[in-house]
UniProtKB/TrEMBL annotation, chain A:
Organism: Roseibium marinum
Localisation: Cell membrane
All copies of domain ABC transmembrane type-1, residue ranges: 65-277
Name this protein carries in UniProt: Carbohydrate ABC transporter membrane protein 1 (CUT1 family)
One biological process term in Gene Ontology: transmembrane transport
Entry annotated with the keyword Electron transport: no
Pfam annotation, one family: BPD_transp_1
Automatic annotation (TrEMBL), chain B:
Nucleotide-binding in keyword set: yes
Protein name: Glycerol transport system ATP-binding protein
Keyword entries, A-Z: ATP-binding, Cell membrane, Membrane, Nucleotide-binding, Transport
Membrane topology: Peripheral membrane protein
Protein's UniProt keywords contain Manganese: no
A single GO cellular-component term on record: ATP-binding cassette (ABC) transporter complex, substrate-binding subunit-containing
Family matches, as SUPFAM superfamilies: MOP-like, P-loop containing nucleoside triphosphate hydrolases
Subcellular compartments: Cell inner membrane
Superkingdom of origin organism: Bacteria
Membership in a protein family: Belongs to the ABC transporter superfamily.
Gene3D superfamilies: 2.40.50.100, Nucleic acid-binding proteins (2.40.50.140), P-loop containing nucleotide triphosphate hydrolases (3.40.50.300)
Organism annotation: Roseibium marinum
UniProtKB/TrEMBL annotation, chain C:
Pfam families: ABC_tran (PF00005), TOBE_2 (PF08402)
Protein family (similarity comment): Belongs to the ABC transporter superfamily.
Record's protein name: Glycerol transport system ATP-binding protein
Gene Ontology molecular function terms on file: ABC-type ferric iron transporter activity; ATP binding; ATP hydrolysis activity
PANTHER family to which the protein is assigned, alphabetical: MALTODEXTRIN IMPORT ATP-BINDING PROTEIN MSMX, OSMOPROTECTIVE COMPOUNDS UPTAKE ATP-BINDING PROTEIN GGTA
Nucleotide-binding is among the record's keywords: yes
GO annotations of cellular component type: ATP-binding cassette (ABC) transporter complex, substrate-binding subunit-containing
CDD domains: ABC_Carb_Solutes_like
PROSITE patterns (alphabetical): ABC_TRANSPORTER_2 (PS50893)
Keyword ATP-binding: yes
Annotated ranges, domain ABC transporter: 3-233
Superkingdom as given in the UniProt entry: Bacteria
Keywords: ATP-binding, Cell membrane, Membrane, Nucleotide-binding, Transport
Amino acid sequence: MKKLNQRAWLFVTPVLLLVAFNALIPMMTVVNYSVQETFGDNLFFWQGIDWFEQVLTSERFHKALGRQFLFTFLILIIEVPLGVAIALAMPRQGFWVPFCLVTMALPMLIPWNVVGAMWNIFTLPDIGLLGYFMNHTLGIPYDMTQNPFAAWVTIVIMDVWHWTSLVVLLAYAGLVSIPNAYYQAAEIDGASGWAVFRFIQLPKMKTVLTIAILLRFMDSFNIYTEPFVLTGGGPGNSTTLLSIDLVKIALGQFDLGPAAAMSLIYFAITLLVSWLFYTLMTMNDNKS
Amino acid sequence: MAQITLSNLRHSYRPDPADDDDYALKKIDLTWDDGGAYALLGPSGCGKSTLLNIISGLLVPSEGKILFDDRDVTALPPAKRNIAQVFQFPVIYDTMTVYDNLAFPLRNRGRDEDIVKRRVTAIAEMLEVTGMLSTRASNLSPDNKQKISMGRGLVREDVNVVMFDEPLTVIDPHLKWKLRSKLKELHQRVRATMIYVTHDQTEALTFADQVVVMQDGEIVQIGTPVDLFERPAHTFVGHFIGSPGMNVLPCEVKGGAAFFGGEQVALEGPAGGAADGKAEVGIRPEFVSVSTTGGGIAAHVRKVADIGRHKVVEAIAHDSRIHAILEGDAPNAGDAVMLDFKRSQTRLYKDGWLASRPEGDVR
Amino acid sequence: MSLELKNVSKRVAGITHVKETSLTLETGHFNVLLGETGSGKTSLIKLMAGLDSLASGQIILNGRDVSGLSAQKRNISLVHQFFVNYPHMSVFDNIASPLKVAGVARSEIEGRVDEAAGILKLKPFLNRKPHELSGGQQQRTALARAIVKESDAVFLDEPLANLDYKLREELRDQLPELFAGRGAVVVYATSEPEEALLLGGQTALMTDGKVVQFGPTADIYRKPRDLDAAKVFSNPPINVAGVTKQGERVILNETTSWTLPGAAATLADGPYTLAIRPHHVLPVETPAHSVRLSGRVLVTELSGSESSAHFEMSGQPWVSLSAGVHPYQVGEVHTFHLDPNHCFFFTPDGTLAA
């Protein structure tokens, strides 16, 4: 009875092509590399799942993965509560709203590599504002090129500075959408500030916070540019996150097979953890 | 519970109000008796929500005082006033069960769990939501959500006043009468002072023992539903209550008699000392009779609407529109008819305000 | 002009929103769709307007099959329950927008907008933005946009539902005149029976995604085809009770029975469902209201000049609606009087018997 409108394909095809070129085809190349060995000259030898076994059993991979989880855990545990707190403190209406929003958005507008370079210079012990202040004014030894702990503190603070705004803006969007009547009702019901947060603001922010956590997880789990520019993975391997290690293996050592296998494992972990997050956070909604 | 007194209340949303037009509320003096059922009735923008927010403490008036019994509460925040309010859109705490929602105001005030349980069970039974107590409140239909909002207002035994701000807006028309009657029943059982804000005459007249009619930030009449219908103090009340509202016809007063288009209209009684000049005659459609032979004012029928239980006739006489409500047979559009006004219900209004007095009233 | 629906239906994800419906809607009067929220009025309007695709059937507008056409190509107008205007445009531009889209000359646009704004009393506000208007003015702007276009069909989906009570009355009064003589097929959805009666014309009663009866409004009010139709077309709800007919008499319960007048007397003996509108059950006795019922008053309501009482009799809810104010006491047992000449009798399967 109903005629299907075939014209819709016209609009979808360019996107499909684009996705094919920038995702599907490169990914298939990676799959191809991950099961073969090559010594150049376009000569390939079938390797099966050897590379996967090698990666999964290598201590180096375990350590990088551990560092990666630690990093992501730290920035989530800091950025989400901090972002929500800042969003709560921001004015909901009036003269200062646009000012606050623009200030919040600024760090996000700066390119990744610039952020890395900025913080690099900022923390140099002899000429950087922060580095000089810490070492010479306060007398606290602080040099992230020498001290792994200082390096970690620096990359975490840098990421918090760069990306907390995203959580703030999303949480703020959730907050301003709460009708005034809710606050008035809570006031009349005698609810404390904490109860208002717990029973009104948090539930109403839940959807946007789910998105914020997912985005921050995926971004931080795949982070490369900023720590690479800032520490280059050092001192030693102390800040060598998964992506930095991957690049070292692929382009530094030119071990394309293991690097491809590692990429796929990396991808699978990101996907799995994202799915876990999402399922856990939306589980309550489906319960009746 | 308490008697609520509003004295010399004025409110403006502007920082520096100059003249009367800048005020959303213009000089309100009013006393709400303990345990009464009141309605604040008026069109949107008449100031009724402003007044409500001032009583609940969500808004501090520009001028004047609010007293709960003898205590001045003008500057107190809502939580300190011991009041309850039900909003236009149901406010429920999504993550809580129905039971926890109802218990919330009590728990916030540190009541014992067994008192909480007793009160919540009693209120749930009154609202007929006992079966839903353990479900998550976010899964309820709008009318049940609104019931829970009402329940949270009624669960505290010591509230000074419960206020309803157009609480049936989001309720399906076919369910409205059920909640309307539920509210009335609740008032009879709880006996707390209740103030119901609405633009809907049925809701106001059904709920309230005393209706306060507002227009443009002023109170135009306070009265029982019967008063408002039979003796509107102002043409606005006549127009606003009843459907169709009261016919308001321009007239000329000469020596205590009213003339509509040159014809004398018999008034209910003395013209109340209304000076000669322009005035208005008010007569409800229910008290206009239509005939083809009898006496009265000559008119022609413009439109007849058959609404089942009666017919609404719209006739034109001396360029004015006059509605009549007829049971049984009605003329057709285009017919020439005679309109007769029931004398005891024909009133004279001067500058909008009721001037005529009933027969035998010798003031 | 006419709008003809031939066996149209709509299913979404296996759920039927509109059951197979055939209707012929004419111009010259209002075509009212009356039904409760969720009865399928809006779904049907979306099909007629071309905002939703049909699962089956055909829609013929002025003899042309428009079933496969999108809303833009049907030359129709739609006014929604919520005040839908372009927020960034002035009232003038809002009203002019359909004409600009249609490529009407600038000089002609001004004249037509002016005329529409005049009828809807919007002339003083032509330069304002929608948010500077009251709800009534915003909805009048949406209505002006609908009439300026000279559409073949105009769909009004509960256009007054979000307005103040008195504003609703005023605008409802103007609506029939607004569309008179424009030649468009006017379809008006509402959930209020009284609104349907005030607008007159033809009414289609809807429940559960299907049209249960269609005809001149006053006729179907007086002669509902079945119990569903009677229920949809009554607010306050129509009184319904099981009765037994025995010889000349009808038995409601142990204490109440009466001799049947008119056509109902010729019905075969047996069980029937009685339905009687609330305004035929009065709190006072009159020559016509001769059957006594006694019930416990549950709630009373007052609207302007009328009062209604909800009462309970043998476990069944009943409603009485009468002119004037009656001092009922809630909880008291009150005697009500039923007019036996205005009872409907339905057979057990729900069709009207008498």
